[in-house]
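Form P-L/3: holo structure prediction, ligand 6-O-phosphono-beta-D-fructofuranose.
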Amino acid sequence: MTKTIGILTSGGDCAGLNATIRAVALRAHHGYGWKTIGISHGTLGLLSRPVAAEPLDPARLDAALARQGGTFLGTTNRGDPFAFPMSDGTLKDRSAEMHEGLRELHLDGLIGVGGDGSLDILRRLLQPTGLVFIGIPKTIDNDVHQTERAVGYSTAVAIATEALDRLQPTGASHERVMVLEVMGRDAGHIAIAAGIAGGADIVLIPEVSWHLGDVVKRIDSLRHAGRSSALVVVAEAAGDSHQGAGRGDASIGEWLAHRLMEMTGAEVRATVLGHVQRGAPPTAEDRLLAAALGVRAVDLLAAGKADRMVSWWNRSVIDVPLERVVGRSRTVDPDGALIRTARALGICLGDQP
Ligand code: F6P
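OUTPUT (holo model):
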């Protein structure tokens, strides 16, 4: 019997989502003769009547799609089904409406592409319906538990690295300290990886407790050694421990640049990279990850598995129970390989000069 599966993308977009959707629909069609329905704008599509969803015709899913950033299905990082923000400012449980929307689609299974928050919400949303759910991890932050890689991270690191490559010559030309703030809501994965790859002198992440005084000392010692410019990478979440230190509304990158200017006397400029890290065509690594995880997610449905997330682990694709994923965040290991590498290269992490 032909089965029909649904797919939606949820949470902040990232590179590689289109490649993931394509891999799922192609595997479903070629591997099993199944139909795939794409649901628009994450769970928001389930609130429209008729439901905002479309069959994904494999003929439309050529390789060009895998090269494109964004998600052609649309996504949302607002609209928690259990506490949906209404126009009058109240929060409403709209999960029952979404269940009704799901019934309208007559699905045999659903694949959700999301970060830890989205996977948690989708899992809880589907539990009372009995609909089989499989998650695929995506987020530039790379902080989903139980997977070494999430779709979108590789591209974000490549963009942040390229930004450092561009900041270095302008910083050197003007003898400036260049501060680059990169994304990562709770984790410093992008910052540490791009910092090493892009030749940063200083990298500040939330997982390593850093002190402004040590950053200042490092800049001073670079100048004494004859270096007239420096590259500093700071993760957006690295500022959480420095709230209230006169920061006001300034981002951590802007605040840091201001303080370093005051304390070192150097000319300092800040670049806040922001959403540029999300919207690019995916790197080859993200396309490969998207393909491998998308295929595995459909194979899990075919094998009758449920409530699992596909994962990249130790150079293999595996799957893990979602209950081991949700409600936790995979932050940078302060004793892990990247931190040790950074220290070995002489990169200052702000915990010593
Ligand atoms: O979780 C992905 C992410 O890009 C974070 O790195 C960042 O803090 C956040 O989303 C930004 O969200 P928004 O797109 O709502 O500004």
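COMMENT: DSSP finds ten helices and 13 strands in the chain.
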